[in-house]
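Rotation project, supervised by the postdoc (A.L.). Task for the rotation student: set up a whole-complex structure prediction and record inputs and outputs verbatim in this book. Inputs entered:
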Amino acid sequence: MLNRKFIPLTITCCLFFLLFGIGSVQFEGFGSTQVFFNLFSDNAFLIIAAVGMTFVILSGGIDLSVGAVIALTGVVCSVLISRYQLHPLIVFPIVLIGGTIFGAIMGAIIHYYKMQPFIVTLAGMFFARGLASVISEESIPIEHEFYNQVSAFGFEVLGGAWIGSSTIICLVVLVIAIITAHYTRFGGRVYAIGGDANSAALMGIPLAQTTIRIYAISAFLASLAGIVYSFYTFSGYSLAAVGVELDAIAAVVIGGTLLTGGYGYMFGTLMGVLIMGVVQTYISFDGTLSSWWTKIVIGLLLFCFIALQQLLIKTTPR
Amino acid sequence: MSLSSNQHLRRYLWPCAGLLVLFIINAIISPEFFHIEFKDGRFYGSLIDVLNRAAPVALLAIGMALVIATAGVDLSVGSIMAIAGAVSAYFITKGVDSLALIIGAGLVAGLIAGIINGFLVGYMSIQPIVATLILMVAGRGIAQLINEGQIVTFDHPGFAFLGTGSFLGLPFPVVLVIITFAIVQLLTRRTALGLYIEAVGANPSASRYIGLNEKAIKMSVYCVAAVCAALAGMIAAADIRGSDANNAGLWLELDAILAVVIGGASLMGGRFSILLAIIGALIIQTLTVTIILSGIPPKYNLLIKATAIILVLLLQSPLFQKQLSQLKFWKNKKEMNNA
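Outputs recorded:
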């Protein structure tokens, strides 16, 4: 019999292949490696942001500032590159470090002042978006040779599918995240805090350090997602990526991670993003369904997975 | 007894002082701020404008205060606003003329949404943030579905009165806030319901043991929040004489939560004051007006708001208060040494 702890993940994987299968049967050209790899390249920034969100949710917290950090990163990048003529390779470390510090501050406030992550990251979201719109309210185009090279970089795999730079970045992030979450001491601490913060503290886990790191990682990955996002748009805009935090949370939940923390898998998050991507692809292939059906279907999926989680918790023998 | 009434006063002190400070700043920047004129049977002036603009958030904050008192949160109120606006616009464009039917339909739509939220939180014990996230995401989709992706405009003088009319000289949205406040205040403070709500928020298992129907109480607060949101959504739709599913009530759930928090409520639940939540909504709106009056470009709006929120939150934190008093202590010590 299948191990209970893999049930949500298995259902997520089956659902993905089911949806992909339905699309392939129904539409010509759906079931190709091209469409499959496009799911990665179209959603690379979301996968990166959702991986950061998974760490936060595993620890029992939540990070609502992700979308705003993506927008802020884009705006800062475009200003530094287009107005101050800095090379992107100098700009990227600056924004990544800036993002990490931003996250660390939020983590510190959450831990030391014992505030709810929800309200602190909400303030962080307002702050980051506010800062982005103060820097520039208009969309700033990024024109740099390096950006053209990065977006042109990639290679073809079988079936004519294209693996671009954003796909490579998101897969590297995913692999590192899986190793960190499941095979390092830090990963174990994240799960322990999510399971029960009090017992974790009694076991001698450094709560302050771990909490600050978790939010720093989430904001770092959000900044990285912002950089990847700017590879698509070639611009920075303070109103970009509105609501990405909710997509990321939805992806984590659909991926089978418990929102109360302490249980879940990085790989599930990837499947969560891919499921949402398949739904979108299906709707665009169909053509007669309007785009707002995406929101309704994702809402329904969210409901089903949360109900499933409750069911599993209730039937777990204690 | 004197201590408790003292504490009661202290709760009102900070939010009221904050609002007063903002009023004074506004009056200094723009002397006409307190000027109110009576023209064509209604009052005009910046202050009335603040009240009028704050009305939708104040309505949301009334419901949100109850939800937060049960240690919950309702993220879906913005989407419920969009749904209610879309439903009433649908009925008007389909030729329904009866105002009661149009408003009733919007309120029923809100009530259904509230029942869904209440069911998920109360009966399925799903975390409130997540349970209401579902409707927040799907709700806007549903509103767009009702509107068929368009911005539906309508012309119905009776319905438009909700947003632009006036009653006893006051803008009608303000009157609606006062009526809603009176009803909810009576229900919660003249019956035991308010006590039950606070009990559920303070200690859910203890309240279950003393025989409170925790689930039904949670259900009822989410329903109240959703109906308030539906009312706010219809005001917003009546104001622009149209239903815009994408933008109606967008991010207002956050403003409503902030209003309640600025009003001094703890997100951990256990106590609430509807009056303070409304004052919180007024503070947010007055701050926006202050920013406009002081000539700071509106793009600084969010940044200033965020800084204000962080400050309010820090001031509420016991550790920060301790650190502040320590700072004073060190300062005093230094002065004593110098002397």
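Student's summary: Strands of chain B lie at 36-39, 42-45, 152-153, 166-167, 170-171, 242-243.
Supervisor addendum: The two ends of chain B are 41 Å apart (CA to CA).
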